[in-house]
Design a protein that fits this description.
single chain, mainly alpha, Arc Repressor Mutant, subunit A, 7 helices, 6% strand
Length: 144
């Protein structure tokens, strides 16, 4: 299973915001910190804002911040939100399934269990859990 860049960058954004809870952070700052496209972050911040995870302030001196406390942001919920409804494999999508072995295939049930286990693990963690190494993460972004 591979997470989309959208999900990867969403989680990175949340980690950065979690390290900087006391202030508004610009998308440019986050883009520079991770050396990623600001254009991606615009879409991500809009999505996370629509889902009540981040709050945005427009205009001069604006930026984004967490809209919830880190312990209230469930990682499984974030990943489900950012990954959308793309099925793991073709046979999980009855409308578009063209696989000829679906009726006799046991792989489908194995993959379904794996997907459930994946999300079950993510559901056990919050942003607060990912910020446990706050000092080490912050040092990564420290400018010399």
């Amino acid at each position: 299973m591979e997470l989309t860049k959208f999900t990867d960058y969403s989680l990175r954004m949340l980690l950065y915001l979690g390290l900087n809870e006391e202030r508004l952070v610009s998308l440019t700052e986050i883009a520079d910190a991770y050396s990623i496209s600001k254009n991606h972050l615009v879409k991500i911040s809009a999505h996370l804002s629509q889902n009540g995870i981040v709050a945005a302030t427009r205009g001069k001196g604006g930026g984004i911040r967490l809209a919830k406390q880190p312990h209230e942001i469930n990682i499984g919920t974030v990943v489900r939100s950012t990954e959308g409804h793309t099925p793991l494999v073709e046979c999980f999508d009855p409308e578009n399934n063209r696989c000829c072995i679906t009726k006799n295939c046991t792989l489908k049930s194995v993959l379904k269990k794996a997907e459930k286990a994946f999300y079950a693990e993510l559901d056990q963690h919050t942003l607060q859990d990912l910020l446990k190494n706050r000092k080490g993460l912050a040092a990564t972004f420290a400018k010399d």
